[in-house]
Amino acid sequence: MSPNRQVLSTILPPRKILRPTLPTRNTVPFSTVINEAHAGEIASWIDKKENTYSLTNNRYEFKLLLRGTRDGFTADSFWKLCDKQIQLVVVMKVKGTDEILGGYNPIGWN
Questions:
Q1: Which residues contact 7 (CB under 8 A, 6 or more apart)?
Q2: Per-residue pLDDT tens for 7-66?
Q3: What's the CA gap between 38 and 43, in Å, rounded?
Q4: Which residues 6+ apart lie within 8 Å of 90 measured at CB?
Q5: First vs last C-alpha separation in the chain
Q6: Strand ranges (DSSP E) for the chain?
Q7: Counting beta carbons within 10 angstroms of the beta carbon of residue 40, is it exposed (0 to 12), middle (13 to 18) or buried (19 or more)?
């Protein structure tokens, strides 16, 4: 409080505020038909588990191979992108409803 008084204590340097940079997250959904919870449920069906896998312990990676709005809704586009793929999950939404249909093929098509 006294500007002319000498400071007798040790003055520490100012603290640095660390702002860690977090890795960027992929916020783009992998599908417009199913979400991560659906993927966990499908994975539990594949493994014939009674309990559904949670979002954090799903042992499968779902990779989008074909999107009808991007690749076309034809049989040729399906065979071009999905032929000889093993452990293939096919899901589709019925237009105008919330109904989702699909199937799983562990050995693939030839």
A1: none
A2: 778 878 888 887 777 676 565 677 889 988 899 999 999 999 999 988 778 888 888 999
A3: 9
A4: 82, 102, 103, 104, 105
A5: 86
A6: 88-93, 100-105
A7: buried
CA–CA separation, 32 vs 70, rounded Å? 12
DSSP element (H, E) containing 80: helix 75-82
Q: What is the pLDDT of residues 70-96, one digit of tens each?
A: 999 999 999 999 998 999 999 999 999
Report the chain's C-alpha Rg in angstroms: 27
Which residues on adjacent β-strands are paired with residue 101? 92
**Domain parsing of the chain, residue ranges:** 36-105
Higher-confidence residue of 110 and 76: namely 76
Residue whose C-alpha is closest to residue 30's, from 58, 1, 2? 58
